[in-house]
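Input set for joint prediction.
Command: fold jointly, output tokens.
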Amino acid sequence: MEAYLVAVAIIAAIYALLALGLNLQYGLTGLINFGHVGFFCIGAYTAGLMAQYGIPWPLSFLSGAVLAALAAWPLGLVSLKLRDDYFAIVSLGFSEVVRIVVTSEQWLTNGVQGVTGVPKLMRFLGNGLTQPLAVLNLLIAVNILVALAKLRIVRSPFGRMIEAIRDNEEAVKALGKDPAGFKIQVLVLGAAVAGVAGGFYAHYIGYIVPEQFVPLITFYIWMAIIIGGVGRISGAVAGTLILMIIMEGSRFLVDVIPSVSGVKMASIRLGVIGLALVLFTLYRPQGLLGDFTRR
Amino acid sequence: MTLTVEGLTKVYGAVRVVDRVSFTVPTGDIVGLIGPNGAGKSTLFSLVTGFLSANEGLVRLDKKSLDQLSSVERARAGIVRTFQVPREFSHLTVRQNLMAAAPKQSGESLADLFFRPGRIREEEAAISREVDELLDFLRLSHIALTPAGRLSGGQKKLVELGRALMTRAGLILLDEPFAGVNPVLIQEIASRIRDLNATGISFLIIEHDLGALTRLVSTLHVMDRGRLIASGAPAQVLANKQVREAYLGGTS
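tokens >
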């Protein structure tokens, strides 16, 4: 049971990291990034493949972050000068392109079979509970670091400007400041965070296949930040926890109600998440912890 | 900074919203632009500042052509505008609205943010002092910490004016700066504009409050249905028969 809880907590912490990145992009700047999973995928494959060559994980995580950021940069350059809704579509397309590229470039990624045998992080800690707990602590530390960096950004002139962009882009232009430049930086930063999350994911799950990086993951993260409260750091974390409780909690229902099969339960789970989302938008549109835009 | 506009034209379908308009705003001048609603005044502002692209015509600042420049680049070149319908940063406080407008802040670079915090603190303190003085002048100090979205129309106009003043532009285009502003304050803003003008900043002002405007400007241009129908000293222009017909509906 403890091992199970630690496992759920690790996945939750990885999702929380993704949520923090998206929160910076959407919650703060208003970027409708529907391709978050693409950056996650780049980070995961970078770490997974580099591990095959025995490259130490801190280096491969950093590479994953840099590669995700490098992918985000031209994407932002071509699409962030356009209207917000265009970026939404372009980013969704981007994440699908990433998934299809890793599916078809077999020489590098082993195609649909994926990359297997990605070693656990800090294996020297043995096979007990110490190793996953260490990973969990590391993840929590990274989450805190990202949250602190985000806080620093929010309270700076940069943060002031991205809020101004959210409020009125034309007025920002009239002052001689380029909204696209700020948005690109935010996109790149959020992508780098997703890249790091990908590294943790690859090492934790132990194998990566393209099917793990479908757009559904992006929308899970969206649900987490909407339920938790857009624009709030605490909201991103709380939303992720609620999402995990619904997703993981529904597994136990199979034991309680034996007549429901696993397949049925997977669909019920999605239904419950959808229902939660609908109820939240109807009765608490600002999310559990409130939306900073309504202060 | 001298603004030169030559033959500027904007066409929507069959309508020439701005029709071959030419004029200059000489360095250190205050120029007024009047005309009935729908005459094309705000569209002209957008063409000059690059928010809309012209079908024909040239815009120059001193000897530099602005035609190929984006709105951001034009603002950086020294032309800053306000909007007829205020575009305040509604979730930022009045104070933050003005602070955001200060040019060239190192705190807007992510690298400096994490590696040169001391420098950012110094800059913020300097901007802060400037903003305090401006807030005091615009009589916005008592609502400095109110989100700008909650202000009245007149107060929002003042916030926009304050933002434009923070940019240190050489030429400021004001679109109805006095709309909704209380009459006493209008006089004070007018005198502030005169003071700023004395330091070399040029103004082009659209305004329906003719009394306040004519006391301020040296030259008045009148637009009607996209065209410039009269230009000259305010008294002379307002006495013009064509202007009276277009602008005042023919009453005399």
